[in-house]
Amino acid sequence: MILLPWLALLLTPVAAYLHVGPLSQTPFTLEQTHSDFQLDSNPATQPNIHTRLEITSNGSAGLYCGRPGDEFNAGYAHFTNSEGVEDKHMFWWLFKARHDPENAPLIVTFGGGPGASGLLFPFSGAGPCVVQTDKQGRGEAVPAPHSWTEYANVLAIDQPVGVGFSYGQSLRNSGATTAWDVDDLLQAFWAQVEYPHLVKNQFMISSGSYGGIFMPHVINTIHSRNHDLDEAVRVNRTIKMPESIMLANAWSDAQSHFLWFHQSNCIDNPFFNATICNDIVDALPGCLNAIQYAYEQSTPTNRYAAFEECTERVAPWEHATRNIYDYREKCPAGGCDMNLGPVEDVLNSSRIKAAVGVPHDRKFLIMAVDEITMPFVYNGDYIQPAYLLLGPAIAEGLRVLLYNGMKDGAVPWRSNLAWMRLLKSPHQSAFRNATEEEYPGVGTILKAGAGPAGEFTLVKIEEAGHMVVRTRPELLQHLMAQWLQKKPFY
């Protein structure tokens, strides 16, 4: 059974092996739009009872690899579990806006994977520093030419606990339970003496790939807790919702992904030869049936069975001759990866650890395979229609921007278009009937809702793969700035 290429496709490559792990965690159902779970006594399946925010960086220090004057804070959110034990420690890093940080928007970003560090995105071009490979083949951090901090404060979170600099026990194995930790961190952040002024500022969340599952659960958790009828839940909350979200190449619905897999990866971008593509066609009915069964009877066993059925037979990435993250690149013998080693090397440097106040012996994991990826796999967390959880927040005004590199085989644009057309919202009819607009030099835009940028928008980027932030950083900075300001993209 070959799962490596499949695990590798969701944001980062995984040098993983398959091992036996427990099946746990409550089912996800099509009807679920609130965080109502049948919980057991395991603290990994229950909400935290307290959160303590700690700043570990040395004041508003300058960042050696950024521009003069760039400032940041970093630290941990320490979670006390249902048994009264402080056992999970989530790392955060706030890169302050270069202009008027007191009033600039706040963008919260986290990784995909599942199990990818939230620092990958800022250190790939969206933060003040970008990691490059020098002439000796070593990683080095240099000023990023198109940092999002030109326009906003950027708060990067290493979630789930276990990735990046985060660490702890009773780790999560689902997007639903991980969302509790993200919300708890944000609540502690709003209340921290250094940051209450940011509560008044515009708030956006950005993620991608498996973030297409994480994001809807985070939005649902914030929304449902803000609307909780239990006054004991709401009394100490800062009632704040993000005004908008940005999603990149988002895995949000397994059924849509596999339904369009052949069209996307045999016709649009022909990763496979004719024989393999015929085998994919033959295998699709069984895969889609298994997903439907898992959606209707959502247990860990059924979800994992669907994952196994589809990844073994419909996604034979071991036979691809092009880079699954970017069709424009031909794979050498042994396959392609995203070459993320330099990022991990740089963030494990003593210079970075000293700046953020992380102990020198704390190892940074750009991808937490054993801690997060494999438990999520065995829980079947991939097999769910997570996009449905966005519905209530969109009905109350949440704006959604999804951008997708059209050369991506890992999470192709067609599957995202499919679930965006299926999502019931005030924009559904207009989006389904919208005319695709040409975006000169970029690709196309499909949008619905008020304003020149729309409120429910898909941007297809012709010359980009899975990591748009790496290959089109100037474009992505532009999309972000125009989206925040509700201005036209061109």
From TrEMBL:
| Statement: the UniProt record of this protein carries the keyword NADP | no
- InterPro entries recorded for this chain? AB_hydrolase_fold, Peptidase_S10
* UniProt keyword list: Carboxypeptidase, Glycoprotein, Hydrolase, Protease, Signal
SUPFAM superfamilies, alphabetized:
alpha/beta-Hydrolases
Signal peptide, first to last residue: 1-16
Cytoplasm listed as a keyword: no
A Gene Ontology biological process term: proteolysis
Task: Tell me which family the UniProt entry assigns to this protein.
Answer: Belongs to the peptidase S10 family.
The identity of this protein, by name, is: Alpha/beta-hydrolase
